[in-house]
Amino acid sequence: MVQGISTGPAVPRGMLIADAWAGLGDAVAPLSNASGRPLARTVKLLLDPLVLRPTMNPRFAGGLIDVEHVDELRRTILEAGPALAATAAWFRLVKQARRRAGVTEGNPQDRYFQRCFELAHTHGDPAALPDAAAIAAETVADVHAERGDVTVDRLRRFMTDPDQVVRLAGLLHHAWADRPDPQPLSPDGLTAFLDTCAHRPDERLWKALAEKEVGTAEAAELDRPRVARDYGLTAKAAPAPPELGDRASKRRLPPPFDRSIMERLFAAFTAVFQRETMADIPSMVVGEIHRSAAPWQLADEPSRVAMALGRDATTGIDHRTDTTPASDANARLQARYSREAYVHAVLRRPDPESASVPEDLKHEILHVQAPYLRRLWARLHGRELRGETTAAADVWDLLDGVFRSVLLDQRDRLRRILEKDGGRT
């Protein structure tokens, strides 16, 4: 687990971005909030992936920017000003075309921000184009058509297209080659949040954990030998770049970090979801490639913080009852686990008889953290694909809900095995 240390002189990244953004003026108003700052989706969908590109420029990746990089970050945003202004102008036209077409589903920023950035680079300022309105209408039609075909079949066809395979393999290679090292940070506050999240979640502390990128820093341990494997996230000694993949089966999905890009997205398609909240196929695939190279292999910092919290909330939970809880959340989950009769049934079974219980199931029953973190990762990954945010008030329901789900599945699996053998739990 990463412990916080001082970082020396630095400037908050959000403040720097807002300051540079103010220098772009009214031309970027469609991408700004009422205070003139960039919208959260502007940062997430445009500035981070397309302008600052922190995976390739790790000096821009932290919540605090070292003073020697401040001017460079500001200059990078200002130099992108013409493209961002053109993006804003295209976005205004595309929204008008969307209204004329009667499209109402989904958030326009999610659907069109990156498309408008592409239009800005392809066509420049739409004011100089006589057919700009027609291009905007075509863009809306293209996006709407893609949204209607968000299916497993189209995902498979896209990922097996020979031209796409070459391009996507290159993106995957570069995403993993450019992975930044976690930045030092101040003390983490994870235990403090776990002590209150079940009954009095602290929204300010939750935001501070995300802003300080505590989840990112806590992911550093995953690259050490056997750590991610012990957490049940991979069967390998350490995480490795995934394959692109061309097939998937829900019954034979490997651990999260070992899943191909195809398998990661396939798992989301086969779950219950709101289709209109998910991106189009090309954007989903490219996003998943970058997500696979991110800390905890998750894209959003709140998701990474949630993984770190889940890890700490389940540390030390096993069949022993004499351990001292590390937090209130840890104590609550330990108490829930200790009440499960099937856990004690497994412990009571003599060796010859216990052979009827598969060793993998027995191990996971007695060491519940690994199956828990696998399911927590899958839950957070699905939330990211659907564009769902995680607030402080959601965290305990998420942590406890995943734990209950794991215990219920284990109980049912063991019951079926024992009933088949004529045993009783």
Descriptive report:
With 425 residues, the protein is mainly alpha-helical. Helices cover 59% and strands 1% of the residues. The chain contains 21 helices and 2 strands. It has helices at residues 13-22, 40-52, 67-79, 81-101, 108-123, 132-147, 152-160, 162-177, 190-196, 203-211, 214-218, 227-230, 261-269, 281-292, 301-314, 328-338, 341-348, 351-354, 359-366, 369-385, 392-420; strands at 10-12, 64-66. Strands 1-2 form a two-stranded antiparallel sheet. It starts with 9 loop residues before the first strand and ends in a 5-residue tail after the last helix.
List keywords for this structure.
single chain; 425 residues; mainly alpha; 2 domains; 21 helices; 59% helix; disordered N terminus
Note the overall shape.
globular
Q: Please trace the helix and strand order, writing H or E for each element.
A: EHHEHHHHHHHHHHHHHHHHHHH
Percentage of residues in helical conformation: 55-70%
Order of strands side by side in the largest beta sheet?
A: 1-2
Cα distance, first to last residue?
A: 37 Å
Structural classification: mainly alpha
In total, the number of strands is: 2
- Rg is 24 Å
Strand content: under 5%
Number of helices: 21
The residue-averaged pLDDT reads 84
Low-confidence stretches: 1-8, 271-276, 351-355
Estimate nothing, just give the exact number of structural domains: 2
Largest sheet, in brief, is:
2 strands, antiparallel
